Amino acid sequence: MPTLTEVWDSTRMRLLIELDRASSLSAAAAAMGISQPSASEHLRLLSSAAGEPVAERSGRSLVLTPAGRILARFAAQALASLAAGESTLAARAGLRSGDLAIGASSMPGTYILPAVAASFIARCPAVTLQVSVGSTESVMEWLREGRITLAVACSDSKLRGLRSESIGADEVVGICSPGSIEVSSDGYVSVEQLASRTLLAQERGSSIRAHALRLHSSESKWGAVWEMGSIDAVKRAARQNAGVGFVSKYAVSDERRRGELLCFRISDVDWGCRDIRAVTLGNAIQAPADRYFQALLTEAVASGSGLLCP
User: SUPFAM superfamilies from the xrefs (predicted)?
Assistant: First the structure.
């Protein structure tokens, strides 16, 4: 009986990953450019080496068994490490070639990543850059599956096998139409100043929304709570003097610079700061392109640290 070490090659690694994505042997084989009989033989060899089936029928689909999913996870990590090695060799003399796949959660992906990506492309035009934005959970899964090699998120991932590093901090700030609230010279308002005003709340499930709702006691309440579907909706309503909202400081940098919105902190209320983190596979060697992109991200976050300074 062969061992996994003897049959473990990049083709079979990729087959497990593609089958996990497609749940169809024909689709997985087509994605790899091999025939379906060849794919079946690869799965047979892997099952033999594993000592148990790595895939099984589920209705019309062919899905990975628990053993197959374990092997697929390690296959993704191995291929990601190999890709990093190839990029490192290709870039030994500088960032002249290679591929870079970045993933980011919504806040950094929307408000920080675009400018950094543009700067990277201008400085490293020969490196192919791919950017994907999704939920934190999705981004971490992309990283584990080897679809991206660097993730950017505003929370420390609890997934095993990942390594994260803080590249700066985000802060939640209040926003309102200029002149609608008297803000102190150092950028503060009191909780009492917000009583009876309309709260422009983010979607349910948002930690920012929950914190804002708890600002007032039973004697001092929000006048009304408007349910807004997005950060952009909160900003638009605030610009129209409909109420006050709370968002990431990075989400309002442009509006503040143009004088469309006023940002403030609340006296004696600590919203706390959340880290913006760069996350990689724990056992992967980071390629030069990844390291350089992360350096540009760190620089961009640092340059935005004084957004609220008067």
Answer: Periplasmic binding protein-like II (SSF53850), Winged helix' DNA-binding domain (SSF46785)
Determine, yes or no, domain membership for 209: yes
| pLDDT of residue 236 exceeding 90 | yes
**For residues 267 and 212, what is the distance between their CA atoms, to the nearest angstrom?**
14
Residues 163 and 278 both lie in one domain: yes
Number of domains in the chain: 3
Burial class of residue 223 in the structure, from the number of CB atoms within 10 Å of its CB (0-12 exposed, 13-18 middle, 19+ buried)? exposed
> Where do we find the tokens 């929370």?
155
Q: In sequence order, which residues have a C-beta less than 8 Å from that of residue 160 and are 6 or more positions away? A: none
Are 191 and 59 in a shared domain? no
Q: What are phi and psi of 17, to 5 degrees?
A: -65, -45
For residue range 250-294, what is the model confidence (pLDDT) as tens digits? 888 889 889 999 999 988 877 767 788 899 887 777 778 888 898
The reply to whether 38 and 187 lie within a common domain is no
Tell me, yes or no, whether 186 and 267 share the same domain: yes
pLDDT in tens, 135-183: 777 888 888 888 898 999 876 556 667 888 888 888 889 999 999 999 9
Which residue has tokens 């590093």?
165
Instruction: Give the ranges where the chain is alpha helix by DSSP (H).
Output: 4-7, 10-22, 25-32, 36-50, 66-90, 106-111, 113-123, 136-145, 191-194, 207-213, 231-239, 253-257, 288-303
Segment 186-203 mean pLDDT: 88
Overall pTM surpassing 0.90 (yes/no)? no
CATH number at residue 131: 3.40.190.10
- The rounded distance, in Å, linking the Cα atoms of 133 and 109 is 6
pLDDT for 121-131, tens place per residue? 988 888 889 99
Instruction: Report the DSSP pairing between strands 262-266 and 162-176.
Output: antiparallel
pLDDT at residue 308 tops 50: no
Q: What is the DSSP string of 26-42?
A: HHHHHHHT--HHHHHHH
Q: Which residues constitute the domain of residue 27?
A: 4-73
